[in-house]
## 1
Amino acid sequence: MSGVKVKELTFRYDKEVVLDHLSFEVNKGEILAILGPNGSGKTTLLKCLNMLLKPKGSFFIDSFDISKFNEKEIAKFVGYVPQIHSLVFPYKVIDVVVSGRTPYLGFSTPTKKDYDHAYNVLNKLGLTHLADKPYTQLSGGQLRLVLIARALVQQPKILLLDEPTSHLDLKNRVLVLKILREITSEGTTIIMSEHDPSLVSIFSDKILLMCNGKIVSYGKAKDVLNRENIAKVYEVNVEIFERNGNRYVFPIVI
Amino acid sequence: MPILLFIIYLSIGKYYISPLSIFNENSIEHTIVFNIRLPRAIEAMLFGACMGISGASLQTILRNPLVSPYILGISSGAAFGAALSIAFFGTGYFFFAQPSAIIWSLIAIFLTFSLSRFRGQYSSISLVLAGIIVSALFSGLLALIQILIEPEKTHTIVAWTIGRLHTVTWKDVATSTPLAILGIFGLFIFRWRIFLLSMGDEEAKSLGIDVEKERILVVFFASIATASVVSVVGIIGWVCLISPHITRFIVGSAPQILLPVSISVGASFMLIADLISRTIWTFEIPVGIITTLVGAPLFLYLMRRAMYEWS
């Protein structure tokens, strides 16, 4: 089977159950969006899929058991774009992006070939003009794209993104999500956490709705995004409109 | 740059010596250069090189431009070790002070590591906090020794902690070189990993490196580089903090360039500082005082520039 298969994934912090027996599958080249309120376990789930945290249960990518891999092997399979990146030193954008080649490098520094690879990815994302800029001077949207570029340089089979559109304006949100859509056309599978159900409905193939570490609903947008589910998870009443097969979710506030 | 300074350094002093006159083996110039100035120059450069690259590496991996090798307790451990040996064996036996300093600085690092282990993991913050605790502990013990022993021994200990180069002999150079080279070489090999470690633990891990293991190795190499020279010349301050900042100012922050260049910047800085310490007054001022007096205002200047550029 090609794609991602997660079975009975459970994670505990000390004794508190954060993720409770999650099972789901994502086909190759699909986008899975994880929806859920703050603290529902979205970020923890992404960190488990990246083996930054060690969960119980099984996790397969193209029928490889990732939990048996070391850091370097995992990095060839899984790319990770964190929600928050704290900047310390004014590194050049190209140096940050080329660091995605690390799992292929052994112990040496990147070669010209690695830099060419990084420039190609920057070019594909329309970021070539930023290559020599200090990445501390980028806007929020540009920084997010640079981190996505770094993850793509890893040539991962799946790309994990933790709220890729948080803190971005509408233009940049759509830009980032459009770019993610393009990435999947080359066979990369994407799993991302998100907050806006309407955007998720437009830009994802499957939705996983979570609450308190459990799956509430999982499937296509039309099956997951209904008034009952949203009310159950977010405790907010909503109106849902449908257009061109996409669902638009608006809260009703009196 | 360091090579040019090296030649100038050897020439200038109480007696000016032409670079060419040293080739006459029986001349007094030959003796001065080979037995006094040369070992001193080499030790100064070695010290600067170790401090430059260790400071640059630690600042980068701990993501904090104010960190220096001294913050991990290395210097306090070394000072304590030297003081202990001076207290027991007297002021004449510098022979014992050096191994004692190196052993105690390694004990201090080991303590820092053990204290920073929390829930089976080492984090950057716990490492710095543990370093501060260990520094404080050894400073306290050092003060205790100073109070308990005779005044003239205390004077020697104070001179040791300020740091000096005028006692350096070929034997000192020989004892500090192997460990210094090992430390410098280790850090140089790790320069790309050091860059990745500065991205933060989770990101470095997701880029495919074993964060804890590699961070420990980097700190280990920085520690032995520091301990190897501090145990010989004492705690010469500011070089480790300021050399990386001067280097960053010249070539930028990317560690693959920053690290090698900080070696020669550190070495040059020390040569200049020691040149000043030998020549500026009728008697010699300990080089540790010069590095601090020059370093502090220079650091202020660089800090202002950096603040301007980073904001």
## 2
Amino acid sequence: MKQVAGKPESMSPVVTHYCPGCSHGVVHRLIAEVLDELGLREKTIGVASVGCSVLAYNYFETDFVQSPHGRAPAVATGVKRANPNACVFTYQGDGDMAAIGTSEVIHAAVRGEKITAIMYNNGIYGMTGGQMSPTTLMGAVTATTPYGRGPEAGMPYRMAEILATAPGAAYVARTHVADVGNIVKTKRAIKKAFELQMKGVGFTMVEVLGNCPTNWGITPSESNKYVTGDMLAYFPLGELKDVTKEVPAGVHA
Amino acid sequence: MSHNMELTMVKGNEALGEAAVRAGCRFFFGYPITPQSELPAYMARRMPEVGGTYLQAESEVAAINMVLGASAAGVRVMTSSSSPGYSLKQEGISYMIGSQLPAVVVNVMRGGPGLGNIQPAQGDYFQMVKGGGHGDYHMVVVAPSTVQELVNLTVLAFELADKYSNPVGIIADGLLGQTMEPVRFPEIMEDPGPEKKSFALTGARGRAKRIITSLELSPEALEKHNDKLQAKFAVMKQNEARWEEYKCEDAELVVVAFGTSARVARAAVDAARQLGLKVGMFRPITVWPFPSEALAALTERGVKRFLDVEMSAGQMIEDVQLSVLGKAKVEFYGRTGGIVPTPREILNEIQKVLGGETK
């Protein structure tokens, strides 16, 4: 029987703390649907990060451990090495993964840890009150760039592209959840990441562009337009790495 | 290395690794730093032999968080480092204590502060015993002074970590790590495993989901959580203090020292006895909990003076003073910079304190 509506089994029956219009809930639901469809709920161990999604463990009906800020890929490494049959994923924001946690995620990717890292990129620190993150766009006004992000703060950088260069990365994609069509595409990417993790192919990562109406100080509808406009102009969508589509070197017939 | 009950000559760092294997530890996450590097190297060689996992992390920070993850999955796990690296692990240790996760964390101390040097020192007493990481916490910290004791206390460390669901620290130093001594290893024990741990994350199959976190946003809930932790620390304090008294029966002066300092102090006490001086040694085997009551009891038995000897500028001395509460005078002798005091130096101090200085 195909479920067409209702709550995925992998989501807990609780109300989230996310702000009105925030897309974290959408991404949570996509992950939960994927876990349901792949029959993974009972073997999944999630790793929550620090930031708005710190309470993710309350929203998934799976085992969960909460990690220090940025360290989720290292924690996930420990979980997965101790329990190689488990499905292990991290759920991190851009501040957590692309700033304080850069070292941990890059090395997890380099080692080809069989985990899935989901990064919700909204270019801002939400939980702490809207400060600049490494992925904040140039000119953007935040609590710590009151005159707009200028060159002294550096340019925003592209996490997915960096991770795609890691030899251990099996699948790296960037998607967004600001419209229905792309929500469906995001789910497809997340599903592929989990599938390849469970096949033991390597490290998998999906960077999902999302909004932050509260800290951007605009309406949810305007915030989705910012995602599809300014953010997409800087953060191109697509599958940046998919080893299942690569021709192995030196095996040309 | 042979793996039977025979007496074998082993270097401290390697003995520690083998003891962990005997204690059922099959997961080790490390990062190279002198003077503990033989330990990860030993684990890299030994773990595959016993079906275990050795992983060299990209940093001490990553290593302790891998430990956190493996511990959450319910297995016995260890990491090791030396002073600067141990500093980096303390964030993770605080999280593990807040999340009530067991593990064994080793610090083979070297000279500090900063990069210091790679010689043996004891300047990390404060950071290992008084917290170091953020928040109100304690952990049992064992202080071996011989390679055999290092083996025995490593096994104990794993047992206490599981017993209290709390990390246990091993405070060693570069000299102990590098010293070769004959040791006997215990038989191989089995890791009780995730099945025996009600918190272990194994996947929510046929049971409610489990959450491991140190986060409590409500002040009331966090205080309640802290009360629970403090009650656990109180039990640890009550039950786990260990110490050795050496020639203290008729002693007028007692030298207090741990680890390598205690090794040297023992020789100094023997030399003092040969000179007819009534000198003993009190050696904390656990530096947390500090064996305060046992030390205080010595003042009741007539000890009027203590000589605290450390390879630091004086850290444990604060616990010695808190234990004797002014009932006896506490003198201090310490060397820093990675210098190990000689028995002669300590004997001189003993003689100075007793007022019969001879050169």
